[in-house]
Write a structure and sequence with these properties.
- The complex is a heterodimer.
- Chain A is α+β, with helices and mostly antiparallel strands.
- Chain A contains six helices and twelve strands.
- In chain A, the strands form three sheets. Chain A has a six-stranded mixed β-sheet with strand order 2-12-11-4-7-8. A four-stranded antiparallel β-sheet of chain A has the order 1-3-10-9, with no helix packed on it.
- In chain A, strand 5 and strand 6 form a beta hairpin.
- In chain A, helix 5 packs across helix 6.
- In chain B, the strands form two sheets. Chain B has a two-stranded antiparallel ribbon with strand order 1-2.
- Chain B starts with a strand and ends with a strand.
- Classes of the chains: A alpha+beta, B mainly alpha.
- Strand 5 of chain A pairs antiparallel with strand 5 of chain B, so a sheet runs across the interface.
């Protein structure tokens, strides 16, 4: 692995080597098929200056609705709901030390690094906590992932993409922070797409709902007629 | 062996789905009920999102009712005129139901309303059936029916007309109204609606039982097709892989059911069905009253 990293660094064009932090991921495309059970994304890089390294992998943004149930007339009913706008579906943070120990909290706020620094478009604190808990349960919001160093410059970390990973364009972001200042950063896109029969069916259902509806009915009618025909012959 | 359901977006055991379809088919072969009432709840118990369970189950029922309808049609057991009037009401009810479905999904009350419909309608039918079969098995004579004021009121409704195939004279508003109610339930519960339609046709309209079953199947084909189409277009929750697997199981189950139905005493069969119906309703009712594992839930906004 270290050899591969060194090779990679040697192959880089000279101007890039001058950057304070550079990094890459083991794969840029993740294909989800029927047998996908999750995958590990290897992330590695080098820092040219001293400082804390933070790697953020951000998924595509979506709008969510979070709801809370309460007992009404003995029955558990959703009584309160809040919209959460433009929230990443997947959000992983790896750091050279725990985020709260890095003395650059205003910077983390402005760069939206860490679950505590994400803008949730929501005031109710208990709903934000519930959101983080629900995401964490599905392994979609891992935080405080360890970054390991080989010497002073080379680092690597592994980020787990779980089975139920949403598709879309992700970014892997590399930050070098020293003395409360951003020293260097780099960003790499990662594409997560669904492939195969499942993806084709999903796309058909969402892009051509009329055709999909007619197809579903047609198949069911044909199957019913076929069954009647087969069993009548017996 | 697992298969990934593309719309429900989760892996499920193929054998479990075939078995579920098979049990539903067995019930339809033995009792003439569609089996949708068992399919939707069990899909939900398996973790399929309720919206996908309801929509895919209605798609599957199309196939089941087509093959049943063809068998009844060959025996001339279909009253097409009443069927058309039921259908007209059904289309209205189903459209309202799908609209309500999408609205409830957005408001976060869909799961609750599906469970409530099951507990209320299925539980009610289960209690009635259990009482009746207990009476039959224990040889208790039913209480003499009271002279019905309902019947007199129904005879005063406007639009009275002859339905010559069934040899009855009722107001056209009756099949229309029954159609509206059953159509709405089809779209909310993922059932064919036979368990509402058939008793209503026999007791309310006074149709002969043999015609009631064939005619209800005729109506159910169109209503479930209509619901499938509307669900595909408005909520994109029809899972074609799921419905095909259920269907494969149901076809085989129905044939086995038909063969064994004649070998078991009818009252015991009906008591078994009543217990099954009650068990499913109780399980769903418990889900309404027991504190959920997490009172918070997260959904992707449309």
């Amino acid at each position: 692995m270290i050899r591969a990293l060194l090779l990679f660094l040697l192959l880089l064009p000279l101007p890039l080597q001058a950057k304070a932090i550079i990094g890459d991921t083991s794969i840029r495309h993740i294909d989800i098929d029927s047998y996908f059970t999750g995958t590990n994304l290897m992330i590695f890089g080098a820092r040219e200056e001293a400082g804390d390294v933070i790697v953020v992998v951000r998924g595509p943004e979506r709008n969510f609705v979070i709801r809370r149930k309460k007992r009404r007339l003995g029955v558990w009913v959703n009584v309160e709901q809040h919209a959460m706008l433009n929230i990443p579906e997947f959000y992983a943070v790896a750091s050279s030390r725990r985020l709260e120990d890095i003395p650059a909290q205003p910077l983390l706020d402005s760069l939206e690094i860490g679950q505590l620094h994400l803008p949730y478009s929501l005031q109710a604190q208990e709903f934000i906590e519930a959101f983080r808990r629900l995401r964490a349960k599905q392994m979609l919001y891992p935080e405080d992932i360890e970054i390991s160093f080989m010497g002073e410059t080379l680092f690597k970390t592994v980020i787990r993409f779980p089975e139920k990973i949403p598709r879309g364009t992700y970014t892997a972001e590399f930050y070098l922070i020293n003395d409360g200042q951003l020293v260097g950063m780099q960003s790499i896109p990662i594409q997560v797409s669904k492939v195969g029969m499942d993806a084709a069916i999903y796309d058909l259902a969402h892009s051509y709902p009329y055709a999909y509806g007619i197809l579903s009915i047609g198949l069911a009618l044909a199957a019913g007629w076929f069954a009647a025909w087969v069993f009548r012959k017996q | 062996m697992h298969i990934y359901l593309p719309i429900a977006e989760l892996p499920v055991n193929v054998l479990a789905l075939l078995l579920l379809g098979g049990v539903a088919g067995l019930l339809s072969g033995m009792f003439g009920v569609g089996g949708g009432f068992i399919m939707t709840p069990f899909l939900i118990f398996m973790g399929v999102p309720p919206s996908v369970a309801v929509a895919s189950s209605s798609n599957q029922i199309i196939a089941a009712s087509v093959s049943g309808f063809l068998a009844h049609w060959r025996r001339q057991n279909v009253d097409f005129l009443i069927g058309k009037h039921l259908l007209a009401g059904g289309l209205i009810g189903a459209s309202l139901g799908v609209w309500l479905f999408a609205h409830l999904k957005g408001a976060g009350h869909l799961d609750l309303v599906i469970s409530l419909c099951y507990v209320f309608f299925l539980g009610g039918v289960g209690v009635l059936m259990a009482m009746e079969s207990a009476r039959t098995i224990l040889h208790v004579k039913p209480a003499a029916p009271k002279p019905s004021t309902l019947k007199a009121r129904l005879e005063r409704l406007p639009l009275q007309r002859e339905y010559s195939r069934s040899n009855i004279k009722v107001s056209a508003l009756l099949p229309l109204g029954v159609g509206v109610l059953s159509g709405a339930l089809v779209s909310l519960m993922g059932i064919g609606g036979g368990f509402i339609l058939i008793p209503a046709m026999i007791y309310l309209l006074g149709m002969p039982t043999s015609l009631a079953i064939g005619t209800s199947l005729f109506q159910i084909i169109f209503i479930t097709s209509h619901v499938t189409f509307l669900q595909a277009v408005t909520t994109q929750s029809v899972d074609i892989v799921l419905s095909l697997l259920l269907l494969a199981g149901a076809v085989v189950g129905a044939q086995i059911g038909t063969r064994y139905a004649s070998r078991l005493p009818a009252e015991h069969l009906r008591a078994m069905l009543a217990l099954l119906v009650l068990a499913v309703s109780l399980k769903l009712a418990a889900g309404l009253f027991i504190r959920p594992a997490d009172v918070f839930s997260l959904a992707v906004a449309p």
